Write a sequence for this structure.
């Protein structure tokens, strides 16, 4: 009877829904199914984080190695304390690594770029990256430029 | 009054109102077993409401409705379900389920109330459809039936479980004379053959008088007359006469209550 | 003085009216949902309703999704090209669809297409005494009629919204990449960088799910509570579309504030 057509239609409908979800997950949001198992936390203090937000990327040579999980104000040093999660298998960041806040493109989003140093000891859970470089703030740059112009 | 030696339904001191309007005020009605009882009265007196009260679809303000000793308004959900197995109801519009075939419509109550295997259900359904003369239409959808046929299918569905009580809500309204004749015959014949009790709610006087064994006349939220068709013909009350003979004016006024005609007309010239 | 008292009384009766309607709607929902599931009977009914409510809404959803995606692509391009960041078209199309347009537009279309049909169907069943006769046979119409229709709407809407998103993004890509010549790699890369599965896709789905609840609930309630006459049913159908559209937009604001507003 017509039942067959109805069931077929509903089957196609459900499949279409599943495919749409898969497309949204994989193609659109770039969800990585082989999600990194585990991570460790490191911290860094910045003078100024510019427009950095939680969930921003942490990269090394442009490759994502983790993400920013929270940003708080450190009340002792009066600096921004950024907590980031680094994937567990990235275990070769030396303790003298440096972190800087970079911008993707001229007006793009902010992210953290990490460069390793030469020390033999590696960063582990809870460590601080000592060498940091704050975000470039456009107003400060312009101000500095004008100041230089004036003193010349 | 040999009718009432054996009653199937005993309604005592029934009061029911909808909002401000009192539909029934302290009414007593007894329905004799195995007979055809007609509830008659002008439109808007809540005759259909009475059937819904008996079916337990609505609850009265006070009073009791005893069906074989079970007080319907006080039954729980489960008991009501069981009691309804004993009742069949033919709705005014037929109320066939539009998304099922004629066959499935008649099979529906059987599937709900019994665990009969499919081939037995098939036999029962075809028997019921044969009884109303529509076995050949079992594959049709309700939308393909004429009004009279739809009502006969609904009747087959109402008697599908061989109920003890069949209620007919305005079975003759809007039927052509042939369909009407068929229905009148069918109701009478089924009542005799299957031995159930029938309650007919109607305002079609001639048809109803022809088949009813006992009649209740309802107006102004109470029973104004009752008796066999023969007895009712000799009641002298003007209210009863007006209804039975279909006079346009009488105790039930032709005019809706209004201000004085002359003053009302003159208002416009104020 | 009398006018004032009348006015206050009017407010009172209006409030009571609305509260009792809300109560009835809640009861209908509760009774339909706590229905003891009888899988053997309920499942075929649900499938049937999924067909009417979901599958038959598919065409309008796919066509609207495609066009909205294409329009977004075109509009986004003309604006972004001035800043030299036309690669961000993908990101713009995807974010606006996934977060906002897909759930909302799908819910609005769904209210017009499926919601009104549900209301009219249930209202007509009531007017032709099918609900009463079902009750007389001993079947609760809330379980048999209302419950499968409610669940079908509740399940369908998120699925339709996902399909809307996917088709819309494809439409945006057609315009952006194939027609206007944005480099395909950066189109997708930008999109994937900015769309987060949990924050955007899942939140959009949650929205669609809530809208599914709201729209279907309003539709079945209006049908079940309609005055069983032809005017009553047409009024109920109109109410379904108006109320559910307004409810969707209102609820959307609240959900957006909760999800993306950093509250």
């Amino acid at each position: 009877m017509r039942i067959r057509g109805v069931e077929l239609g509903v089957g196609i409908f459900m499949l279409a829904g599943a495919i749409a979800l898969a497309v949204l997950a994989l193609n659109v949001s770039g969800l990585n199914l082989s999600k990194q198992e585990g991570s460790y936390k490191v911290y860094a203090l910045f003078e100024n984080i510019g427009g950095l937000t939680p969930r921003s990327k942490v990269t090394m040579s442009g490759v994502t190695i983790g993400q920013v999980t929270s940003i708080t104000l450190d009340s002792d040093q009066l600096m921004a304390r950024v907590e980031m999660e680094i994937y567990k298998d990235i275990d070769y960041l030396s303790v003298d690594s440096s972190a800087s806040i970079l911008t993707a493109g001229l007006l793009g989003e902010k992210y953290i770029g990490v460069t390793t140093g030469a020390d033999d000891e590696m960063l582990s859970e809870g460590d601080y990256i000592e060498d940091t470089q704050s975000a470039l703030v456009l107003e400060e740059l312009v101000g500095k430029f004008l100041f230089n112009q004036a003193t010349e | 009054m040999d009718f009432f030696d054996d009653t199937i339904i005993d309604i005592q001191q029934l009061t029911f109102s909808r909002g401000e309007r009192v539909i029934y005020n302290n009414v007593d009605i007894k329905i004799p077993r195995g007979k055809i009882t007609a509830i008659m009265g002008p439109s808007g007196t809540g005759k259909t409401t009475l059937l819904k009260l008996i079916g337990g679809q609505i609850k009265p303000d006070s009073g009791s409705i005893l069906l074989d000793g079970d007080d319907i308004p006080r039954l729980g959900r489960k008991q009501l379900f069981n009691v309804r197995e004993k009742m069949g109801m033919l709705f005014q519009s037929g109320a066939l389920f539009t998304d099922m075939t004629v066959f499935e419509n008649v099979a529906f109550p059987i599937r709900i109330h019994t665990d009969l295997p499919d081939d037995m259900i098939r036999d029962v359904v075809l028997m019921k459809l044969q009884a109303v003369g529509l076995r050949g239409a079992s594959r049709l959808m309700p939308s393909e039936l004429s009004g009279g046929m739809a009502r006969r299918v609904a009747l087959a569905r109402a008697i599908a479980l061989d109920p003890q009580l069949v209620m007919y809500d305005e079975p003759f309204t809007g039927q052509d004379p042939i369909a009407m004749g068929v229905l009148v015959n069918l109701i009478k014949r089924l009542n005799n053959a299957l031995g159930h009790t029938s309650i007919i709610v109607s305002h079609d006087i001639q048809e109803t008088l022809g088949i009813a064994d006992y009649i209740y006349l309802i107006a102004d939220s109470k029973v104004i007359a009752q008796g066999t068709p023969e007895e009712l013909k000799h009641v002298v009350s003007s209210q009863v006469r007006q209804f039975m003979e279909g006079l346009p004016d009488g105790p039930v006024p032709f005019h809706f209550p209004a201000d004085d005609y002359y003053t009302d007309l003159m208002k416009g010239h104020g | 003085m009398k006018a004032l008292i009348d006015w206050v009384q009017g407010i009172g009766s209006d409030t009571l009216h609305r509260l009792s309607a809300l109560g009835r709607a809640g009861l209908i929902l509760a009774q339909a949902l706590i229905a003891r599931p009888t899988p053997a009977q309920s499942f075929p009914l649900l499938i049937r309703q999924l067909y009417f409510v979901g599958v038959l809404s598919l065409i309008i959803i796919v066509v609207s999704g495609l066009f909205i995606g294409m329009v977004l692509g075109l509009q986004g391009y003309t604006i972004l090209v001035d800043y030299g960041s036309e690669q961000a078209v993908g990101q713009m199309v995807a974010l606006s669809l996934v977060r906002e347009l897909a759930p909302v537009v799908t819910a609005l279309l769904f209210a017009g297409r499926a919601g009104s049909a549900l209301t009219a169907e249930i209202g007509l069943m009531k007017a032709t005494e099918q609900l009463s006769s079902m009750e007389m046979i001993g079947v609760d119409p809330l379980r048999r009629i209302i419950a499968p229709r409610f669940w079908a709407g509740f399940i369908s809407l998120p699925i339709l919204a996902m399909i809307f998103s996917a088709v819309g993004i494809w439409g945006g890509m057609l315009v952006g990449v194939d027609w206007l010549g944005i480099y395909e790699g950066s189109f997708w890369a930008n999109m994937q960088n900015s769309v987060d599965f949990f924050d955007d896709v899942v939140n959009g789905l949650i929205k669609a799910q809530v809208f599914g609840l709201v729209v279907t609930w309003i539709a079945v309630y209006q049908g079940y509570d309609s005055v069983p006459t032809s005017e009553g049913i047409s009024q109920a159908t109109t109410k379904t579309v108006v109320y559910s559209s307004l409810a969707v937009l209102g609820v959307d604001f609240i959900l957006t504030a909760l999800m993306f507003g950093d509250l």
